[in-house]
Amino acid sequence: MTYEKPLPVIDGESQPFWQAAREHRLAIMRCRDCGKHFFYPRELCPFCHRAAVEWANASGRGKIYTFTIARRPAGPAFKADAPYVVALVELEEGPRLMTNIVTKEVDRIRIGQAVKAVFDDVTTEVTLVKFAPA
Amino acid sequence: MARKAAIVGVADTLLRDGVLAEDGTVLQIQARAAKAALEEAGLSFDDVDALFAAGAWGIPGPGLFMTTTLAEYLGLRLSYMDGTQIGGSSFESHLSHAVAAIAEGRCEVALILYGSRQRSDASRTLGGRGGAMLNSQFDAPFGLPTPVGAYAMAAMRHMHVNGTTAEQLAEIAVATRKWAALNPAATMRDPLSIAEVLASPMIADPLHLRDCCLVTDGGGAIVVTSLERARDLKKPPVVVAGAAEATSHWAISSMPDLAWLQHAADSGKRAMAMAGVGPGDIDVVEIYDSFTITVLMSLEALGFCGRGEGGAFVQGQRTAPGGDFPLNTNGGGLSYCHPGMYGLFLITEATRQLRGECGSRQVKDAEVALAHGTGGVLSTVASCILTRT
Known about the structure:
Helix content of chain B: 25-40%
Largest sheet of chain A: 5 strands, antiparallel
Radius of gyration of chain A: 16 Å
Strand content of chain B: 15-25%
Number of strands of chain A: 8
Strand order of the largest sheet of chain B: 5-4-6-9-1-10-13-12-11
Number of strands of chain B: 13
Distance between the termini of chain A: 31 Å
Distance between the termini of chain B: 16 Å
Oligomer: heterodimer
Structural class of chain B: alpha+beta
């Protein structure tokens, strides 16, 4: 069965992130000058605008910053999943990222809940970093 | 500021049940609106030397060069053009830029245009939405319904931080519907109760269907010129006394604080400072209501109530006709129309309120108005303070 949901158009800047995901690692960026972590990857640090940026492995631990339950899907490809949880997870390193919370009990999800990264190999090329209650 | 600028003509495209009353392409819609707004002012197309436009039509294709396409279609000879696209707040931004251009003497008569066949074309797709490329590749795979899901995430966070309730959000939808009942042009005019809002289908928790704006066609035009020229025209001039804009993020995942609109606070403060007014001086308030939460958070950021107090502020139908805070007096995006980018109608309604043309929904003695647009997913804002001369 073909995968119908949106897939990333992987480019030179994002390739290390998607490669890490295939290896079931969560890669974020860190600025060697100001020390802050950030996500998504960028040429310059969005905080101090210097170019001393490097990849770093995140622990995969975080908390739910906010979320919604999609009662109506984001298009036909997501129809079978509804209702499903889309969340912003705040990693313990600081950055937030968009993700799904993998759960059968969507109504039990709460802001502040501890979650950990899980890796969903959706195609042979693409692994999505999702989260599950810790 | 060298020269002041004033709004001298406005037009809204007439809708019937949210669909164009007179069918037409997006170009026809805008030509008709432009003609109506210029005629109201007593100006002609030959007077227009500046064009501002934003929309979601003709992409890929002629919509990519929107101002150029419109200038060609309308037969305009322009010395100034601006296609700033910051979603629903584009038109407040256009008005702000027009004020600056007029002040500097770079143009004399500015036309701001918008047209959409979103409802007729049975599409909520904003056009040209490509694959999950560049920064969207990190968000799109997860199926956040856009834009409602992003606003739902903000509402969820606002409830968590401030204790805001679904009933408080519903107050806004109900009050706005009461204004729509007084506007013959509004799409949804039947009474609505808080219980009905809460009983409407949940779309993306915590937002119900009736927390969400309509999906309609629509279009409109605004004509702006210098105040000195405005004094000789047909309508009483409405002065643009202050204007400002600000950006926060593009994707909701990059919004710094989902319970607080710092960019709206910045933009509102700058626009009010330019006009020499404060929140307490404003008689009629038009705030972009893509969703009920947009209004509640904007009220806080603009200084009409304290941070986190938006829920309490809107309780008891305070913003309804007869309440002490007239808000979204044409019925807003929630009940009048929402063709995808609503911002232009904030300005047309504020203008008509200041002219005293609003009949049964007229706010008594309205002298100062605010039109505050929000675009994208709480991404961008622009604020305009309008006054009677």
